[in-house]
Amino acid sequence: MKPFLLIATRAQDAAADGEYQGFLRFGGLAPDQLHRVRAETGPLPAIDLADYSGVLIGGSPFNSSDPEVDKTLVQRRVEREIAELLDAIVAADFPFLGACYGVGTLGRHQGGLIDRTFAEPIGAVQITVTDAGVADPLLTGLPRTFDAFVGHKEACTTLPAGAVVLASSSSCPVQMFRIKENLFATQFHPELDVDALVQRIDIYRHAGYFPPEQAEDYMARVRTTKVDQPAVILRNFVRRYAVDRTGARTYA
Are 165 and 197 in contact (CB under 8 A)? Predict the structure, then answer.
């Protein structure tokens, strides 16, 4: 099988490695089936989409809606390089799934409005699948409503032209959307379970998502939740788009 490509941007090794393990586990992938590039460490290498089954983007400390003057040189470079990669991905309608930061990257790239209107605190929210989502193969096997983990400072307020909303919530109308046939972004995190989110709360306690002294309270609340449905999306993505070395689909 051609591997999938994960574009990561988390500077903390523990957060980056935890994210990678989440995509491996919930995507049902072996390490040689998921090639990770940590974009924050240096310029993206040359990427030939023909070498991959699909592209994934994880979450990020970066916010696309930050004023340009407030962005670091690293953030500006990462955004520029991801935008250049998205030029090729969108033109080819190449399989793409972005989690959280995927909304900011793909949504902004395609002309949507990404701002802080629908930010959500860290925790579990109830997601509702739209009629279009019920018909989409990536949501096959999911109930009409399910809980998912969120925690973001920005979200999509106005969809890109032609985008289709696949899932929503009361606090954030655009929780998942599709562009063309094969380009997806979720605001929630399909790669997270309880333990992984608790780890992130600890790592990012000083990142402005909540007052640092409330970290233990957030962890305690998360530990009382049960979130086990969103990972279906990752498994469906892998099953739908995995291709062998000849380019033939490995799954029907």
Answer: no
Domain limits of the chain? 4-241
Quickly state the pLDDT bin for 247 (edges 50, 70, 90).
confident
Q: 4-241 falls under which CATH superfamily?
A: Class I glutamine amidotransferase (GATase) domain (3.40.50.880)
| 222 in Cβ contact with 197 (< 8 Å) | yes
The tokens of 206 are what? 């000083």
Mean pLDDT of 123-132: 97
**What residues does 8 pair with on adjacent strands?**
38
CA angle 167, 172, 173 (to 5 degrees): 50
> Which is nearest to 101 in space by CA: 72, 65, 134, 70?
65
Sequence-separated (6 or more) residues with CB below 8 Å from residue 112: 156, 157, 158, 159, 160, 163
Residue 100: which of 186, 213, 181 has the closest Cα? Answer: 186
Cα–Cα distances (Å) from 1 to 32, 33, 74, in that order, read 9, 7, 33
- pLDDT over threshold 60, residue 252: no
Strand order in the sheet with 120-129: 34-38, 4-8, 55-57, 96-99, 183-186, 176-179, 164-168, 120-129, 145-152
C-alpha 88/C-alpha 126 separation (Å) is 34
Tokens found for residue 66: 């930050």
Quote the CA–CA distance of 167 and 173 in Å, as a whole number.
8
Question: Hey, which residues does 156 pair with through a beta bridge?
Answer: 114
pTM for this prediction = 0.96
Check: CB of residue 166 under 8 Å from CB of residue 133. Answer: yes
